[in-house]
Specification:
heterodimer; A: 147 residues; Ubiquitin-like (UB roll); DNA polymerase, domain 1; 2 domains; 5 helices; B: 757 residues; alpha+beta; Aldehyde Oxidoreductase, domain 3; Aldehyde Oxidoreductase, domain 4; 4 domains; 7-stranded mixed sheet; 5-stranded mixed sheet; 24% strand; binds FE2/S2 (inorganic) cluster
């Protein structure tokens, strides 16, 4: 039995010893968290753990015991802002990469001051997107960083 | 126009950006059985024995199926209109396996771990056969991949199939004068062979399907697909059941790029649900998606061109050899586009010829991938044209402007009447944007790296001529709002949104008043699905026709109600007008909902076309080449597109950016690689490199809008044409930088530095 605080809500749940956080979160109903690979390459599964962006596919749920987790469902205001810019640019194409990208972008905004385009590209390098070609997302992220 | 050509967010953007559960696996019941497939470790083998008793005895295991338990009707899972031009050459499970990753057995259990444990306990004895791995020696190879009876819908004299020789298709066309005589008469001729690799579509959502029986015991399939209607028909054939007992629903899809134009995963949970009566789902791993689905056709294309000294291109001959892999999905049609969507770019031709062979090999089956053969054909032909221009010392821009097809012409090759084209303007604008004439094509930078430019042009189609047709239905609800029923199967690009814009434009209503109901075989009208660049053009025109039908019915109704001639009645702003009298839709809906003269008004419209109007694009690459490492980075890419009228500027721009970037991946890094026994090496994102953010610098898109008379408000397609120019434009830039022509994709640093083997 572990205790997870997800988006401010406390969950007590049984987990298998080899269960990874993404599966626990999806089982608890946080379906925004997506999986795109088995090799920690795609970034789709990004959530914030105690305010740090992590890959939820690569963390054993047991290790998240007692921690605070934020998923896209839990960041309404920022999601609305960033999501609005993405939508204006058409950067949310199929949208499958969008939750992970948004979570990492939110973490980046808290961490980097006035990043250049290259710094943004490097920070978000682990967030693959096959649909957009990235440049529309960069335009949206720039707008988001400016507010 | 009020809604066409205007800034308009995707109708599902807030669901996407707030993480709503809208994708297949989000919708599956928590208690659905988990389905897994045992995959063949051999490229070519007969299953001599298969023992599942230990697997069946595992806790939680519901069912284990082998080739002995499945129907024996062969089918194709290529998502194409009936009668499919792809052969019926597969079974759900067969006693023979034809590539590493082919399906051997199906397991369903309560949990994933249980299903995996069961897989490990299936004992299979294989008799290995010699595999056919090299597509250049596949024809008449001693190993025959399909030695069983294969049904082809195409007559042999059209498709040229000969499965006993591993030939899936073989055919050709000639246009104009005799090709050999014309080539012999040319001042300059060039013959080159180009090799294009297989490539993985790599959509972020892997294949997945969820099935259950509804209240009337019908099989419901919620699935990540581009082709719900084809799946319904094909499942019925494969499972030997009535189509009336099947419903296919496409929810929101996490990308497809053609991969999901083949029904990869649906059949497995479907048969489990039918046999057990229980809900079931399969979610492919990324590894399975790479190694057990489909990829782009690898090809060798031999180009022969002849020109006179002034640069007039007189003859083009293209021969394409296409690697089909183990099953014939999309084989005949993909290879056709290598010629059909490249040669007609040039129209001062006297002679043109196109011929093709498609061969079976013991590799992952090839399938649809954005561009669908045009991408391979464009790389070959455009690279050859650039080399010809160099040979003639003519600027690549000029040789295009001298030879390209013009609006109003009929092409010699493939006989296409071109009713809309601004290709000349695309080239001109692109050249201006990249500064083609303002700087030398090769510039040495201070740090010793080299900047260089290159260009290419391309075309695609809009829907399949004489085959595709779509229907749309729009209904005026009693409450005055509208429901639009379509099946265009948006898989991320925004087709649904564009269709709502077209409906709003035609009916002159606020788009918020229109609810879209999409891609559910029980509810929405037939549409072939999301492929062949058909969404905005084919389904788009069906929507316009449906809205006009409803408009006529509404004006007639209102005219009768007011007792005035229909010609005096007008529709705008969500209401019907007669002079100053205004009848809002909501009032019309109310009137219609009561009494003997009422009834729901429904507009229907269909569209199919005898032509497939080509969109055009000119692409210009500006690369930075490091002569120390051989590394190439595209620092600026300019794409100028003629997709007819631009319906949604932001979405069209992103389509173009996305295509350019996928094309850069194809040009420089993406490479499906096999080991000596047919094992796929590149089965994850570590091995198979798709572009990442730091790989992509500047991509600039502009539009030169023509007006396509047959399209909705003048629109043509955009989804596929945009992927084609990157590879040949970069090839030409690499030549400008290094003096080396490359004939193999991807163009890797070793080859750029030391030449190709
Ligand atoms: S699922 Fe791909 S990085 Fe986590
Ligand atoms: S929007 Fe589809 S993967 Fe990014």
């Amino acid at each position: 039995m572990i205790t997870l605080t997800v988006n401010g809500k406390v969950h007590q749940t049984e987990v298998d010893t080899n269960e990874v956080l993404i599966d626990t979160l999806r089982r608890l109903g946080y379906k925004s968290v997506k999986r795109g690979c088995e090799t920690a390459n795609c970034g789709l599964c990004t959530v914030l753990l105690d305010d740090k962006a992590i890959l939820s596919c690569s963390l054993l749920s047991l290790r998240a015991d007692g921690k605070h987790i934020l998923t896209l469902e839990g960041v309404r205001e920022e999601a609305k802002l960033l999501g609005g810019f993405l939508a204006e640019q058409g950067g949310e194409q199929c949208g499958y990469c969008t939750p992970g990208l948004m979570m990492n972008t939110i973490a980046m905004k808290r961490e980097l001051v006035d990043p250049t385009d290259e710094e943004i590209a490097h920070y978000l390098m682990g967030n693959l997107c096959r649909c957009s070609g990235y440049v529309s997302q960069l335009r949206a992220i720039r707008q988001y960083l400016e507010v | 126009m009020k809604f066409v050509g205007r800034q308009f967010k995707k109708i599902d953007s807030s669901a996407i950006t707030s993480g709503k559960p809208i994708y297949t696996d989000d919708l599956a019941a928590a208690d659905a059985l988990i389905v897994k497939v045992l995959r063949s470790p051999h490229a070519h083998a007969i299953i001599e024995e298969i023992d599942v008793s230990r697997a069946e005895a595992q806790p939680g295991v519901e069912i284990v199926l082998t080739h002995k338990d499945v129907p024996k009707t062969r089918f194709t899972l290529a998502g194409q209109s009936y009668p499919e031009p792809s052969p019926y050459d597969q079974l759900i499970l067969d006693s023979k396996v034809r590539y590493v990753g082919d399906a051997v057995a199906i397991v369903a259990a309560q949990t994933e771990t249980q299903a995996e444990n069961a897989l490990k306990r299936i004992k299979v004895t294989y008799k290995k056969l010699e595999p056919v791995l090299d597509f250049e020696t596949a024809i008449d190879h001693p190993s025959i991949i399909h030695d069983e009876e294969v049904h082809f819908n195409l007559p042999q004299h059209v498709g040229g199939q000969d499965t006993k020789r591993n030939i899936m298709a073989s055919y050709g066309f000639s246009f104009g004068e005799d090709i050999e005589t014309t080539l012999a008469d040319c001042d300059v001729t060039l013959e080159r062979a180009y090799y294009m690799q297989a490539a993985a579509q790599s959509m972020m959502e892997t294949f997945r399907s969820y099935t259950y029986l509804d209240a009337r015991d019908r099989l419901c399939v919620i699935t990540s697909t581009q082709v719900p209607f084809h799946i319904k028909r094909q499942l019925a054939r494969a499972l030997e059941m009535s189509p009336s007992k099947i419903r296919v629903i496409k929810p929101r899809i996490g990308g497809g790029f053609g991969a999901k134009q083949t029904s990869e995963s649906e059949i497995y949970p479907a048969i489990v649900t039918l046999k057990t009566g229980k809900p079931a789902k399969i979610v492919y791993t990324r590894k399975e998606t790479f190694s057990s689905s489909n990829s782009r056709h690898a090809m060798r294309i031999t180009v022969r061109i002849g020109a006179d000294r002034s640069g007039r291109i007189r003859a083009i001959d293209l021969h394409s050899l296409s690697d089909q892999g183990a099953y014939g999905h999309h084989g005949f049609t993909t290879v056709k586009l290598t010629g059909e969507k490249s040669i007609p770019l040039y129209n001062k031709l006297e002679a043109a010829k196109f011929s093709a062979d498609v061969v079976y090999t013991n590799k992952l089956k090839a399938g649809a991938f954005r561009g669908y053969g045009a991408t391979q054909g464009t790389f070959a032909l455009e690279s050859a044209i650039n080399e010809l221009a160099d040979r003639l010392e003519i600027d690549p821009v000029d040789i295009r402007q001298m030879n390209i097809v013009q609006e109003g012409e009929t092409t010699l090759a493939f006989d296409k009447l071109i009713e809309s084209s601004k290709l000349d303007r695309c080239i001109e604008t692109g050249a201006k944007m990249i500064g083609w004439h303002d700087k030398p094509r090769r510039r040495v930078m201070e740090d010793g790296t080299i900047r260089a430019t290159g260009m290419a042009i391309t075309m695609q189609g809009s829907g399949i001529a004489n085959i595709d047709n779509a229907t749309a239905i729009i209904k005026l609800n009693e409450t005055g709002d509208l429901s639009l029923f379509i099946s265009a199967s948006d898989n991320g690009m925004g087709t649904d949104t564009v269709l709502v814009q077209l409906a709003a434009e035609t009916l002159k209503v606020d788009p918020d008043e229109i609810t879209l109901i999409a891609a559910d075989t029980d509810l929405t009208p037939y549409d072939p699905g999301s492929y062949a660049s058909s969404g905005a053009y084919v389904t788009g025109m069906a929507v316009v026709n449906a809205c006009n039908d409803l408009k006529n019915k509404m004006t007639e109704m209102a005219a009768a109600y007011w007792n005035v001639p229909p010609a005096e009645v007008e529709q705008k702003d969500g209401a019907i007008y007669h002079k100053d009298t205004r009848l809002p839709f909501i009032d019309l809906g109310r009137i219609l909902s009561v009494g003997p003269s009422g009834g729901t008004l429904v507009g229907t419209g269909s569209f199919g076309h005898p032509a497939s109007p080509p969109p055009y694009m000119a692409g210009f690459a500006d690369i930075n080449y490091d002569p120390k490492t051989g590394l190439v980075k595209v620092v600026d890419y300019v794409g100028v597109v003629d997709c007819g009228t631009v319906i949604n500027p932001a979405l069209a721009t992103v389509q173009a950016e996305s295509g350019v970037v996928q094309g850069i991946g194809y040009a420089l890094y993406e490479d499906v690689q096999y080991g000596p026994t047919g094992q796929l090496f590149t089965n994850n994102f570590l091995q198979y490199k798709i572009p990442t953010r730091p790989d992509i610098a500047q991509v600039r898109i502009a539009f030169e809008e023509s007006y396509e008379p047959s399209g909705p408000y003048g629109a043509k397609s955009i989804g596929e044409v945009v992927i084609n120019t990157s590879a040949p434009a970069i090839q030409s830039a690499i030549h400008a930088a290094t003096g080396r022509y490359l004939y193999h994709l991807p163009m890797k640093p070793e080859a750029i530095l030391f030449g190709e083997k």
